[in-house]
Design a protein that fits this description.
By secondary structure, the chain is of the alpha/beta class. The protein is about 35% helix and about 25% strand. It folds into 2 domains: about 240 residues, Rossmann fold; about 55 residues, no CATH class.
């Protein structure tokens, strides 16, 4: 059980039957394609136990991959929900200032409560941001009725822009449209692409990645599942006002390990998809065997 699950269970009351009913209500709304808010604390708890572990782990993964080492002191969390992205950022950066934008006042109130409880030394602003280091759209840009206007406004006040979406074909196609829009504005694309050319993936393929997420017993109870983990697929784009040196390419599929070799799928800086086979005799075999889906690779590593 993670820190937020423990908190909402022990500090906000816990009635399993009510939370399970709340989870079912949320699912009905999702399946109907509705913009779902949170009607009560039980729905907040249902989200914390079923969706928060996955979205939080995705945020942590991307922070570790791309944001560590940057000077991040202020964050605009657009569509913050209960503050998932801001909580993840707080694990890596000290003395953060948050600007939280959220249509659902109940969700935003809990985001403020959680952030102040776990990271009391940080500051949550109530006014609008004029300038920030990082803007995050974590599973939220699709909620914007006019995403271009929202994105342009955010880009005008930030150094870095991270957009995370579910790892589906539909969301990837939208990210490609966003990519074109941002490149036309002169943005520097840091990841996942190592190039600014047309995406080389075939029409029946899409760029996405995944993390494995442990399931608590409460998680399994609410979802009616038996497995101890689930896999969360995601797609993303990271833009910056600053240029960045690109690597050779990025792994756009999990490495396939065989008895004496491994097969890789790499999107290169030349906008090509290559599928090299690396044998055990290669000097780089051991290092490449430790690589993970989504890692960037240098020329020297192959």
């Amino acid at each position: 059980m993670n820190f937020l699950q423990t908190f909402v269970q022990h500090e906000l009351g816990w009635h399993p039957s009510d939370v399970k009913k709340a989870y079912q209500e949320l699912q009905l709304g999702y399946r109907a394609g509705q913009r779902v808010g949170y009607a009560n604390i039980e729905q907040i708890q249902a989200y914390v136990f079923t969706r928060f572990p996955a979205t939080y782990r995705v945020c942590l993964k991307l922070i570790e991959q791309h944001l560590n080492g940057l000077n991040i002191q202020s964050v605009l969390d657009w569509g913050c929900g209960i503050g998932t992205a801001s909580l993840a950022l707080s694990e890596h950066f000290e003395q953060l200032e948050y600007y939280l934008v959220e249509q659902d006042p109940r969700a935003r109130a809990y985001a403020v409560q959680f952030l102040k409880h776990f990271y009391a030394h940080n500051i949550v602003h109530e006014d609008a941001a004029s300038s920030v280091d990082l803007t995050v759209f974590s599973y939220s840009l699709s909620e914007a009725p006019d995403w271009q206007h929202v994105l342009d406004a955010a880009w005008g006040k930030t150094k870095y822009l991270l957009i995370i979406e579910p790892g589906t074909t539909v969301h990837f196609k939208k990210l490609l449209t966003i990519r074109d829009h941002m490149l036309a504005k002169g943005a520097n694309l840091w990841a996942p692409c190592c190039h600014k050319k047309t995406c080389p993936l075939k029409a029946d393929d899409w760029c996405h990645f995944a993390v494995n997420v442990p399931r608590s017993k409460e998680h399994r109870m609410l979802k009616g599942g038996a497995r101890g983990f689930e896999q969360e697929a995601y797609s993303y784009m990271l833009f910056s006002k600053e240029p960045k040196d690109v690597n050779f390419g990025r792994l756009v599929a999990p490495p396939r390990i065989h008895g004496g070799h491994m097969d890789l799928k790499i999107c290169t800086a030349n906008a090509e998809i290559i599928t090299p086979t690396v044998g055990k005799s290669s000097d780089n075999y051991k290092a490449l065997k430790k690589s993970e889906w989504g890692d960037s690779l240098t020329h020297e590593s192959l």
